[in-house]
């Protein structure tokens, strides 16, 4: 349900039904939803009710339909950039979907298009030079490539929250973190000034920031990297998004802090039932957090599977190469098996299979572009791979394991 | 045979100035009482969180910053006392590879100039020899000889790291400080660079000080590992001993924090939330170090043992373990710490 939807509400202590605008905080069984009333019908604009939690009966439950469909469905997305050297096909025919409450990890090296995919979902690609050549991004029934700018504003930061890799550069150094979280809330909800501080404190408490009453008035430079990332998460979650996009959320922090940030994301997901789109190159983080995994290479999805299936039985030579090239803390190998070469620039992707120039198995058929084939049907999500040679890899032991 | 490099009680304190009339108010104890030695053709891994002083150790022992105290002996000679031409000759033997392959190469110089500059500076090659030497160096690190005419911006991160390695090799050093050489690189490229460093070690007889927060890379390349916390080494052991039986609570915390790429071993089962705690994610500052053991405010063992007074008041010494003298730990309760590992595993 969108923020600002009008429903009838029976509130204890008030006579009769009133029509108010609500925001669903959490869906309960049978069409009940815990919501927050943000303003009353017929009241003058600017005079806002205090936000309070009420339980409303929303009937028919629109969410029931939506639970059948994925929360987010990206279909054949092509985000290209016009450059002097021709089109950079940063994202070229990417499809995946995320179910409500699930974690989907997008894995790949820099230059594989994972960040551009995330920015495309949020429509944060500047046009020009960016162009959406094809595809659709359907979020809760609406194609984000088609909706109006105002609707987008409401979704961005409202129903889709986001956190970025560098908490240091994503926070504004001249405002206190409290001001910045308050801004994120006020953009999406009409909250009275007097109540705002309490809302910000609640957001900081939710992400387990120690001593929130002191932290709220601090500037970003007064905080450690881990604490800044917590503030970013508080800001992203302040409006109870249905989907959180986390772009390399722990790449810039130490391992001990990383463990706590991952734990925090897990807790937030369990408490709120939100879905997470996790973008990372760290397979350890993927194993720790993801339900589904999408492996990207050179702007395309080359393999997609449930996390246990993918780690037990990777079928694309690139995925196997990633596993084999990892130096591990839990065992020692004599020599790492590196993938030779590097990802070609986005303006010069080879025709056919884009991995063929680095692939130990490449043959003449690899000049044809491979399509995603199902290798393991799976109950919920099939294991698909785009490789002509995947049968040769079937059940072959993964190097190094 | 004496070790190639011996570091004895090295310390580096930086002054913090402040106030109306700037004067030294406090000291940052970036490196305090650090001792280790590296044998010829061996690698010592130096690990720890950001701010623990591991980079300062590397820079101090190369004399890029003056040391506050202690001694560094390189090939048996006192490095900290060297001056003039003696120091210049010693510096040929020791080189540095940097973390950031973008910031550490001069964008206005061609690759040939970058790699050839150390040779030219030390007067080791005339103009006609220089090109051949540069070509040979580029080949050694897996770059094409034509790269010499190009500029750094034309190369990817992994290739730039190779350029940095070629520059470090130019003077045929005996010892290289690798400061996070793979942290800025992608997984597949990281493996290429790690393999290259290992190959070069074998062919050139190099010794490395591998400074990294990537405990996987360190395990892979090191013969021995030292773990630093707030300027001090808290645990030091041969690699296998350190990873198989980490004893200091901080080492255990560090190793336990690394996510293992195996979904069957995730720490919290899917669909559950795990434990909830209020986090103070801050590492104490090296200016106002906690009294006693610097790690005690974060130490799980300290809490479990009922907050013993000794942890708060007395700084533990780096002591060899009775069962393994090569394994040294800076903890008042090494036996209890060793036992807590058994509990963690079971």
Tell me what you see in this structure:
- The complex is a heterodimer of chains A (401) and B (346).
- With 401 residues, chain A is an alpha+beta fold.
- Chain A has helices spanning 62-68, 114-121, 149-155, 167-170, 177-188, 193-206, 212-215, 225-237, 255-272, 283-289, 307-312, 317-324, and strands at residues 5-10, 17-27, 32-40, 52-57, 72-83, 86-98, 103-107, 130-139, 142-143, 160-163, 243-247, 275-280, 292-297, 300-306, 373-376, 383-385.
- In chain A, strand 11 (243-247), helix 9 and strand 12 form a beta-alpha-beta unit.
- In chain A, helix 8 runs parallel beside helix 9 (255-272).
- Chain A is globular.
- The model of chain A is unreliable at 1-5, 28-32, 39-51 and 57-66 (pLDDT under 50).
- The two termini of chain B are 43 Å apart.
- Chain B is 34% helix and 23% strand.
- In chain B, the strands form two sheets. In chain B, strands 6-7-8-3-9-10-12-11 form an eight-stranded mixed β-sheet, with helices on both faces.
- By secondary structure, chain B is α/β, with parallel strands linked by helices.
- Chain B has helices spanning 54-61, 84-92, 111-121, 127-140, 157-169, 187-204, 215-221, 239-244, 249-256, 300-304, 309-313, 334-345; strands at 5-18, 23-38, 43-47, 69-74, 77-78, 94-97, 175-179, 207-211, 224-229, 232-238, 319-321, 324-329.
- Chain B contains twelve helices and twelve strands.
- The chains are: A alpha+beta (401), B alpha/beta (346).
- The interface between A and B is large, with 59 and 56 residues.
């Amino acid at each position: 349900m969108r923020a600002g939807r009008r429903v009838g509400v029976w509130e204890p202590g008030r006579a009769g039904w009133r029509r108010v605008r609500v925001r669903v905080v959490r869906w309960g069984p049978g069409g009940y939803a815990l919501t927050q009333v943000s303003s009353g019908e017929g009241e003058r604009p600017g005079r806002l009710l205090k936000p309070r939690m009420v339980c409303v009966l929303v009937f028919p439950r629109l969410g029931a339909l939506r639970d059948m469909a994925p929360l987010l469905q990206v279909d054949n997305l092509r985000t290209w950039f016009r450059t002097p050297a021709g089109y950079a096909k940063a994202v070229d025919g990417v499809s995946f979907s995320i179910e409500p409450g699930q974690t989907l990890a997008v894995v790949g090296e820099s230059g594989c298009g994972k960040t551009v995919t995330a920015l495309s979902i949020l429509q944060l690609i500047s046009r020009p030079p960016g162009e959406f050549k094809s595809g659709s991004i359907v979020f809760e029934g609406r194609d984000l490539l088609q909706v109006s700018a105002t609707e987008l504003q409401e979704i961005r930061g409202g129903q889709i929250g986001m956190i970025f890799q560098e908490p240091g550069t994503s926070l504004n150094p001249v405002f206190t973190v409290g001001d910045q979280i308050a801004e994120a809330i006020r953009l999406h909800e009409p909250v009275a000034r007097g109540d705002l501080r309490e809302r910000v404190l609640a957001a900081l408490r939710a992400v387990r920031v120690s001593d929130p009453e002191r932290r709220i008035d601090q500037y970003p430079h007064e905080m450690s990297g881990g604490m800044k990332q917590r503030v970013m998460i508080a800001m992203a979650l302040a409006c109870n998004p249905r989907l959180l996009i986390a772009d390399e959320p722990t790449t810039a922090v130490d391992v001990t802090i990383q463990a706590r940030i991952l734990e925090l994301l897990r807790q937030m997901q369990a408490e709120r039932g939100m879905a997470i789109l996790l973008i990372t190159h760290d397979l350890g983080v993927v194993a720790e957090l993801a339900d589904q995994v999408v492996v990207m290479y050179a702007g395309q999805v080359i393999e997609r599977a449930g996390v246990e299936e993918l780690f037990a039985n990777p079928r694309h030579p690139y995925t196997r190469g990633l596993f084999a090239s990892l130096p591990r803390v839990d065992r020692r190998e004599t020599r790492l098996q590196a993938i030779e070469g590097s990802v070609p620039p986005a303006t010069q992707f080879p025709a056919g299979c884009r991995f063929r120039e680095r692939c130990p198995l490449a043959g003449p058929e690899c000049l044809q572009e491979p399509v995603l084939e199902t290798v393991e049907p799976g109950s919920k999500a099939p294991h698909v791979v785009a490789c002509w040679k995947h049968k040769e890899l079937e059940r072959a032991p993964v190097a190094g394991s | 045979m004496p070790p190639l490099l011996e570091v004895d009680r090295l310390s580096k304190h930086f002054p913090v100035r402040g106030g109306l009339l700037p004067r030294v108010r406090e000291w940052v104890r970036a490196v305090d009482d650090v001792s280790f030695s590296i044998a010829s053709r061996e690698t010592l891994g130096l690990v720890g969180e950001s701010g623990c002083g591991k980079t300062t150790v590397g820079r101090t022992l190369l004399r890029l910053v003056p040391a506050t105290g202690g001694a560094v002996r390189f090939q048996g000679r006192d490095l900290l006392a060297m001056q003039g031409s003696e120091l210049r000759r010693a510096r040929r033997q020791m080189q540095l590879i940097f973390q950031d392959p973008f910031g550490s190469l001069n964008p206005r110089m061609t690759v040939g100039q970058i790699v050839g500059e150390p040779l030219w500076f030390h007067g080791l090659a005339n103009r006609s020899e220089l090109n051949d030497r540069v070509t040979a160096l580029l080949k050694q690190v897996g770059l094409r000889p034509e790269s010499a005419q190009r500029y750094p911006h034309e190369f990817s991160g992994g290739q730039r790291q190779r350029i940095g390695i070629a520059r470090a090799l130019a003077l045929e050093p005996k010892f290289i400080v690798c400061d996070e050489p793979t942290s800025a690189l992608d997984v597949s490229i990281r493996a290429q660079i790690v393999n290259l460093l290992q190959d070069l070690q074998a062919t050139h007889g190099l010794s490395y000080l591998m400074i990294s927060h990537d405990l996987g890379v360190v395990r892979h390349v090191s013969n021995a590992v030292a773990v630093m916390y707030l300027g001090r080494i808290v645990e030091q052991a041969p690699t296998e001993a350190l990873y198989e039986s980490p004893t200091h609570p901080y080492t255990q915390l560090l190793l336990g924090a690394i996510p293992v790429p195996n979904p069957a071993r995730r720490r919290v089962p899917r669909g559950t939330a795990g434990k909830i705690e209020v986090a103070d994610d801050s590492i104490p500052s090296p200016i106002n170090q906690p009294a006693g053991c610097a790690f005690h405010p974060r130490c799980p063992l300290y809490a479990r043992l009922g907050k013993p007074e000794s942890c708060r008041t007395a700084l533990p010494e780096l002591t060899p373990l009775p069962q393994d003298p090569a394994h040294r730990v800076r903890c008042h309760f090494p036996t209890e710490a060793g036992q807590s590992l058994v509990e963690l595993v079971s």
